[in-house]
Amino acid sequence: MSTKVTDPNAKGSSGFIWAIVALLVIVAAVIGYIVWNGQGAKTAGLAEREQQDVNMTVEYADGAITLSSEKATKDTPTVELYEDFACPHCADLAVATDGDMKTAIEDGSLNVAIRPLNFLDVSGSLDEATLAGATGHSTKGVAATIELAKSGNAAAYWNLRNTLMVDQQVVYNKWEMKDFADAAKQFGADDATVDAIKDADLKADGGDIAAANAMKLKEETGQVSSPRIIHDGKDLIGDNEDITTWVEKAKDLKA
């Protein structure tokens, strides 16, 4: 008489496999949550941070984001500020002089046309085509801030630009367009502007504009660099002058 021998672990093996499957599902869910939560953490807390109130207007035209005040007159001078969101010297200048610039704009003493650049997104030749095709942090910042300027929301523009400069070491190369959009929303941007930032065409809305600004700067001064303060096609601050004095010097200009 033969005896059928069965695997005493056969039933247990099936249960073990299902246990492994369940564990993998749980692990995947946890990883997904961590990734999702990490994405949100990039801009978490911006709404709670102290935001600056502004009493100025913002307009966009021909590559320039112009900050002005209703107190400005036909005699109020206008200067151009060239800056790159990846430039540490631009961040240093913003920390040192944005307060003075804001006061001068709001009291009608100065108009500032900010011309964003993206030359630090590329290496090698700074020709127009190369700059226009850039897709890095600076180009994304250009696209985002220009959408805010187009919307006319001066407070949202000012606070996002302030974050990109003051917290440059924290946000540099960390944000995608979704993060720029989330930040703009927390600073008070309307839904249409938030969507425009999220869906921005980096070439048309960022690279082309930054490249045109770079070509304008190069044509007028012979080189592309930042930060630069330009008046009537010439540098306001000389090589041996302290650039942090630019606001006071600009206020003394004639319109």
UniProtKB/TrEMBL annotation:
Which Pfam families does the entry mention?
Thioredoxin_4 (PF13462)
What the entry lists under InterPro entries is as follows: Thioredoxin-like_fold, Thioredoxin-like_sf
Quote the Gene3D superfamilies the UniProt record gives. Answer: Glutaredoxin (3.40.30.10)
Q: Which domain of life is it from?
A: Bacteria
Q: Where is the Thioredoxin-like fold domain?
A: 77-237
Q: Which residues cross the membrane?
A: 16-36
UniProt key word Coiled coil: no
Q: Which SUPFAM superfamilies match?
A: Thioredoxin-like
| Keywords linked to the UniProt accession | Membrane, Transmembrane, Transmembrane helix
Heme as a keyword of this entry, yes or no, is no
Question: What is the recorded name of this protein?
Answer: Thioredoxin-like fold domain-containing protein
Species, as recorded: Corynebacterium phoceense
Taxonomic lineage of the native organism = Bacteria, Bacillati, Actinomycetota, Actinomycetes, Mycobacteriales
